[in-house]
Amino acid sequence: MEPALGTVAIRPDPRCSCETDLCGNRDASVADPPQRSSGLGVSEPPQLAGLPGTERTRRFRPKLRWELIGCGLHGHELIGTDAAEVRLEDHLLVRETAGLRWYRCLRCDSWLPLALPKSPSNRFPPGRDEIELPLRGRSLRNRYVLRLIALDRVIHFIVLAALGIGIILFAIHQKDLRGDYLRFLNSLQSSVGFVPSHNGFFREITRLIYDSPTKLYLYGSAFSAYAAINGVEAVGLWREKRWAEYLTFIEVTLLLPLEIYELAVTVTYLKIGALVLNVAVMAYLLWAHRLFGFRGGSAVDRVEHERDTGWGALERATPVPSQLPTVPLRSSVQ
Known about the structure:
The protein is mainly alpha-helical. Among the domains are: 61-139, no CATH class; 148-240; 252-302. It has 9 helices and 5 strands, in the order E-E-H-E-E-E-H-H-H-H-H-H-H-H. A hairpin with a 2-residue loop joins strand 3 and strand 4 (100-104). Helix 6 (242-265) packs antiparallel against helix 7 (269-288). The radius of gyration is 31 Å and the shape is elongated. The protein starts with 35 loop residues before the first strand and ends in an 18-residue tail after the last helix.
């Protein structure tokens, strides 16, 4: 009987038993895991790993399926679409039934039916040593969150670099700008009766106009250096470098007292938002990336990366025929 639509079947070689691969050798990657007995004569299949998008959502705690987001942005990761033949050992990646090939997305675990290739360029799908597995699970989540933080660092870099360059240019042309600024204030005061000393913005501009060039160069250099640090952080975080996580954490931590002091002087929504964002970045880096040995450190992080992204994760999420529950035949003698 043909399998129902949406199921995936394996066609074993009739010359080989179900316990062996095509060469007659036991293959640990294809071997069926042990089954439990329910006590009613029915073998219970082992618990398969949960697949993205199959979990029941919670009303007030939505869960992002990072694998589905990745496939929505970059497309599915399919292997063997140009292969002429499919082997039994390829069952983790591609299966063939009823004239259709079912390709497994290595990121989100979706099985997609496609027609057989008309002009295949390879005889078989590539082996495991030729495949670079995409990120999944926590590793994929961490990539997206780190890149969001990197974008925040890019914004900081642009704003701070513009301020630094602007202050240095202002210091170079300070004398000329001072005369133009004073003439502008005089005309503004004589025409509309505006008093610049009563406005905080104009008070700061006036103080800046009369600051020494040395101090202005110092300010501009400080802003430029801080912008460079944010630029380095952005590049490192985008490339998921461990040192960039430490650099970002230390930089945000050192500036946290200054942000709290500024918030104590004057409370604005912008300052509150910046403080909340920086505290969230610190907490995330410390907790999720286990900085400074926290929660087991980088060793535990590497173990979780391998568990979520390696071939073991694909095997745990792959059903094999013997995992289906079997009902014993009824005896003819009652």
